[in-house]
Amino acid sequence: MTNRRKFLQQSGTLAAASLLLGRSALAETFMAKKAAYPIGLQLYTLGNLITTDTKGTLQQLAAIGYKEMESAGSQKGVFYGYKPKEFAAMVKDAGMTWRSAHVGGAPITVDQVLKMAKTAEDSTKIRNMMAAMKNMPKQLNLTDDYQQLADDAAEGGLSYLVSSFIPVGTLDEMKKAVEVFSKAGEACKKVGVQFAYHNHTTEFDNVEGHRPFDYILSNTDKDLVKMELDLCWATKANQDPVALFKLHPHRFPLWHVKDLDKTTGGPAEVGAGTIDFKRIFDNAKESGMKYFFVEQDGAPQPIQNVTNSYNYLKKMMA
Predict the structure, then answer these.
(1) Residues 232, 227, 127, 120: is their CA dihedral positive or negative?
(2) 117-133: per-residue pLDDT in tens?
(3) How far, in Å, CA of 143 to CA of 310, rounded?
């Protein structure tokens, strides 16, 4: 009887311990999954704020809760007038990590950018933007400066270097894009950085019997050239992001997370538009997503807008 009682006591203790360990492991797994997707921000959203007060703006973003940053070109150059190490240190001092940088894929003409315009208002904005760029420092691009940009990305400790735009309006332009991206991918690989390409809506147009999105992915090495899927622009082009994940699994380590306004059809705060983000995030594994960045082109009140987007995502992911 004594042995039986002792056996039962020991068994009960082991069962309780196993249950507690199981719960602990489950909790750790759940927390690790959440921690794997810190909320990031594409700094393009902030307009001139990031160039006029870089340090102060980064501190504001950290106070909101943002942990990851993706930079964009500016009137002061690729890295807001700083050397890669300088900007990386500034981001780190604010308590965040600089993960990715947007750079141009090729020298851009007004006519090439105007192909992206959907309205007369878009055309006016593009012309004004291109006029302002004449007074900006030379913007490095992947066609001419892919090795320097790859080296700069490595110097800044970046994980990704992303082509923000390249013309794909003709078959020749698509072939050129494949050539540029392949060279950029090789250059990035040599210095420990991953290259990726960011889409707009034009990648889903029919161009001389090809869809640029598929043409580029099918004609580049899947390990050298990844995609940063802009969920808003893909949705605006009548594409289902989840279907794209299944079509090209594990090719999308980066996302741009912005919503599509119900009325205007333009970018909106995350959670204020028509996109079902929960469904998309539920398929993150098939996508291969590593990092995502909130973005809102032309945000009217940038700090408030990115605060609202952050709060929506934090609640959705809780």
Answers:
(1) negative
(2) 666 766 676 666 656 55
(3) 35
Tokens at 60, concatenated: 């504001």
Q: Which amino acid is at 105?
A: G
Confidence class for position 37, pLDDT limits 50, 70, 90: confident
State both tokens at 295. 């973005």
pLDDT tens figures, 100-113: 999 999 876 656 56
d(CA 259, CA 268): 5
Alpha-carbon distance 131 to 164, whole Å? 19
Pairing of strands 254-257, 291-294: parallel
For 60-122, give the secondary structure using H, E and C. HHHHHCCCEEEECCECCECCCCCCHHHHHHHHHHCCCEEEEEEEECCCCCHHHHHCCCCCHHH
Q: What are φ and ψ of residue 93, in 5° steps?
A: -60, -30
pLDDT for residue 16 is more than 60: no
Strand partners, 197: 163, 227
Do residues 294 and 306 lie in contact, with contact meaning Cβ atoms separated by under 8 Å?
yes
HEC string for the chain: CHHHHHHHHHHHHHHHHHHHHHHHHHHHHHHHHHHCCCEEEEHHHHCCHHHHCHHHHHHHHHHHCCCEEEECCECCECCCCCCHHHHHHHHHHCCCEEEEEEEECCCCCHHHHHCCCCCHHHHHHHHHHHHHHCCCCCCCEHHHHHHHHHHHHHHCCCCEEEEEECCCCCHHHHHHHHHHHHHHHHHHHHCCCEEEEECCCHHHCCECCECHHHHHHHCCCCCCEEEEEEHHHHHHCCCCHHHHHHHCCCCCCEEEECEECCCCCCEECCCCCCCCHHHHHCCHHHHCCCEEEECCCCCCCHHHHHHHHHHHHHHHHC
Contacts of 13 (CB under 8 A, 6+ apart): none
